[in-house]
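In this section we walk through a basic example: taking a raw amino acid sequence and producing a predicted 3D structure, encoded as discrete structure tokens. The instruction is simple. Fold the sequence below.
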Amino acid sequence: MRTVIPYGKQDISEEDIAAVVKTLRSDFLTQGPKIKEFEEAFARYVGAQYAVAVANGTAALHLNALALGVKPGDKVITTPITFAASANCVRYCGGEVVFADIDATTYLLDINNVRELLEASPRGTYKGIIPVDFAGRAVDLEAFRKLANEYGLWIIEDSCHSPGGYFMDSDGKQQHCGNGNLADLAIFSFHPVKHIACGEGGMITTNDEKLYEKLLQLRTHGIVKDENKFINSLAFANGLEDSQISNLKSQIYPGWYMEMQDLGYNYRLTDFQAALGLSQLKRADAGLVRRKEIAKRYQEAFQGMPFIKGQSGFVKGHAYHLYVLEVDNRLGLYNHLRTNNIFAQIHYIPVHLMPYYRQFGWKEGDMPIAEEYYQNCISMPMYPTLTNLEQDFVIKNIYSFYNV
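The resulting token sequence is shown next.
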């Protein structure tokens, strides 16, 4: 088999193409009706009250940090095993990123390490926590919410890997990623390798109406168009002197008027991207079923193998954006797979050891579990259109490398 097998891949159907073409032929390319339609459909999908579509997952994180008021000097805790954007959003606002190590089994931010950080500093030292549903496995947000409430912290849930994922709370109920019940804000990504592809794109979900309204404003340059929220006078808005306002027949703000009330950004999603997202969303559950089938086959193939140090396994509620193995001789396996057109990937280089973050004093040895994980981890091909034949080819090549 010489077909290229990547670690992740989008699935674009004829229905997706038709939905995009229909929008391209409409009157709107951006800020049209598909944006709101996508937001409402996605909010229903994850069980949240509000959703805000944005340009990408990084924009979503940045807007969340802005909406929560992160300012220079604020300390925020996150995991080193994530894409750098999870930490960078704090730096965009001048805040300080503090890393806590991961759990060796789940690969998620270790709540015990977070608690140790909080207990070691005076109350008020930290402002928030950004846990990540890494690889698609849901963080126990019930436990994190209890800890956050104890110390007066907000939570941003980075759910880029986990639409459709969930954990079971103490009452035995499914708590879906991004449903707004436990995190103040959650974010999702629509990058091509994610569950739902828009080319680029992101979504913020929340149950907090005030944060929702703030996000809508920040997404579009900080501009307000609701006359009930205008600050400048009616006379100014109409281009009149105050003495002239009484002569107006209609005491209303003119249709063109708007106000920039905050320093926002152009972080909007386009209408045709939203149309693609809507179409993809219809297949999200089916894609999740297939991802779990692939994960189960990987688990059965590698469980108990002597070269395996750890693996994602088969976990209830896992959304399986990635299926990670920890192996002996990771570099050798990586190169062997590439030779056979299997393009596995490494997720992730620990963020605290990126040169940018080393300048703040982070060094090797600070996060021993995350660093050991990085030395061994490799992400297997995982996407809904991966066939059983292709997956068998991947497994066969791994067996052959380790002489199984």
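Looking at the output, two observations stand out. Residues 223-260 form one domain. The chain is about 35% helix and 15% strand. In the next section we compare this with other chains.
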